[in-house]
Amino acid sequence: MLLFSACSKKAPEKETEKPEVKEPKQTEQTEEKTDKYHFPLTGIGTDTEPNQRAVAVTVNNHPEARPQTGLSKADIVFELLAEGNITRFVAIFQSEAPENIGPVRSAREYFIELAEGYKALFIAHGYSPEAKKILTSGVIDNLNGMVYDGTLFKRSSDRKAPHNSYITFENIEKGAEDNGFSMTGPPASMNFYKEDKLESINGNAADHIKVVYGNGSQFTADYQYDVQSGQYSRFSDGEQTVEYQTSEPVLMNNLLVIETEHKVLDSAGRRSIDLTSGGKAYLFQKGIMKEIEWRNTDGQILPYEDGQPAKLVPGKLWVNVVPSLKDVSFEAK
């Protein structure tokens, strides 16, 4: 067994038990020559012009909010620290529209910054004081559960607040229409491999990746690569990330882990996260790891290799934002 580690190059501690992996459904990712268009955030082919606007949703990742709903339909999911060691997701939807999304949680200013990079309609339930100032200034189209609780946003009876706020995509579209927000205008396209070039991906073998937030295991994210599907499964605190209602696994084709400066701002543990300066990163694709860099290009967080935009495997992308790459370890089976 070859072992690799994030910075010290020492092997991460072996787990006594590997979490049970639910078998992923085989999905057709093959790009056909007849495809006239491609979705900008996945590179997947489509016969119709993908002109729909992106929607960015702040999704709760507290243990009491798991499993979540709608994450499997997101083109890109960012995982970032909120307060303390608690992480939240910013899920970007463009190529698919889930029936329901949640639990929805409150905004932070750097969540809004991410949404702006994709020209997205921003959805959250609540806000930090700084995020509230930004949202009420009108710099970004948004729908917030503090305004629409019980109307556009619905509370589920099987979970307790603040872990039970959901919004349907139908209500997102209704809220946009009522407020005069456009639902057309796609984000800028990212850079993807052609299907016949996927075999050219090279680097260090890495089938299992661990991203640690804090000292405990509640917000540790584990990713396992499946050779047959060519996708990664995700686990939180040893439990596989799946859809709440269907138990369908949440899968991704690319995993990007970026290192950037974090600063704690107040006694509540609120923080600022630098999403503009760029820095070191790891890119995981097809069971391979590359040490690269990340840059903010017109608001989008993108991988760069040798000074050029790095290509992504067509499909889903997850981005873990960490204070240090020392929080990341990986190994080859």
TrEMBL record:
Endpoints of the signal sequence: none
Pfam families: DUF3048 (PF11258), DUF3048_C (PF17479)
Domain DUF3048: 41-182, 210-319
Organism whose genome encodes this protein: Lederbergia citri
Spans annotated as Disordered: 1-45
Name listed for the protein in its UniProt record: DUF3048 domain-containing protein
Feature: compositional bias, Basic and acidic residues: 10-38
Superkingdom of source: Bacteria
Annotated InterPro entries: DUF3048_C, DUF3048_N, YerB-like_sf
